Amino acid sequence: MEAFYTLQGEGAHSGRAAYFIRLGGCDVGCHWCDVKESWDVNAHPHLSIDQIVTEAAAHPGRMAVVTGGEPLMHDLTHLTQALQAAGFKTNIETSGVCEAVTGSWDWICFSPKKFKKPNPAIYEQAHELKVIIYNRSDFAFAESFVPYLRPDCRLFLQTEWSRTKEMLPLIVEYVKSNPQWQVSLQTHKYMDIP
């Protein structure tokens, strides 16, 4: 769908320079999604892996973040191999709903959504759990995954952007009471960068 060089604004790598590769296609259907234009897999240009990697390599940062939509709708084996061969660390953000995790990943951010159940195969592979908090019930939803994750998986709670004013104070109190969690803010939106 698009690719751009910016800062990672969320989660464990927040503040680091990153080349984002946003792939078209998603069948999860989050009503609050901020990139609904990514959902139709056929609405976007098809680029070769060589084109993607060449454009990424034109920038000095060597962290590539593959996102979507739902990026695992695609076989990402060759893309991640080419990125790593070009010196990139490969990160992905996925809802974990797809049949398999394809590709070679240095970091997997698992961001489950209530709208479609994840494939349990993602649990042992996730380095980071990032749950979007839209309603109070989302805290229990977030906790429901913790017993299945690796002990070193980092745990993040992040407000849905339009609900920040209402939900951020609740997240702060929750993290104070449950310090295994951390707050993730969409810092790129505060900085007004893509």
TrEMBL record:
Protein name: 7-carboxy-7-deazaguanine synthase
Record-stated family: Belongs to the radical SAM superfamily. 7-carboxy-7-deazaguanine synthase family.
Binding site for substrate: L7, Q8, G9, R22, T67, P194
Alphabetical list of HAMAP family matching this protein: QueE
One Pfam family recorded for the sequence: Radical_SAM
Superkingdom in the source lineage: Bacteria
Described purpose of this protein according to its UniProt entry: Catalyzes the complex heterocyclic radical-mediated conversion of 6-carboxy-5,6,7,8-tetrahydropterin (CPH4) to 7-carboxy-7-deazaguanine (CDG), a step common to the biosynthetic pathways of all 7-deazapurine-containing compounds.
Enzyme class per UniProt: lyase
Positions with a binding annotation for [4Fe-4S] cluster: C26, C30, C33
Residue stretches making up the Radical SAM core domain: 13-194
Pathway field: Purine metabolism; 7-cyano-7-deazaguanine biosynthesis
Cofactor note text: Binds 1 [4Fe-4S] cluster. The cluster is coordinated with 3 cysteines and an exchangeable S-adenosyl-L-methionine.
Keywords: 4Fe-4S, Iron, Iron-sulfur, Lyase, Magnesium, Metal-binding, Queuosine biosynthesis, S-adenosyl-L-methionine
GO molecular function: 4 iron, 4 sulfur cluster binding; carbon-nitrogen lyase activity; magnesium ion binding; S-adenosyl-L-methionine binding
Record-listed E.C. numbers: 4.3.99.3
A biological process term (GO) from this entry: tRNA queuosine(34) biosynthetic process
Quaternary context: Homodimer.
Needed co-factor(s): [4Fe-4S] cluster; S-adenosyl-L-methionine; Mg(2+)
Catalytic activity, as annotated: 6-carboxy-5,6,7,8-tetrahydropterin + H(+) = 7-carboxy-7-carbaguanine + NH4(+)
InterPro entries named in the record: 7-CO-7-deazaguanine_synth-like, Aldolase_TIM, rSAM, rSAM_sf
Residues annotated as binding S-adenosyl-L-methionine: W32, C33, D34, G69, S111, P112, K113
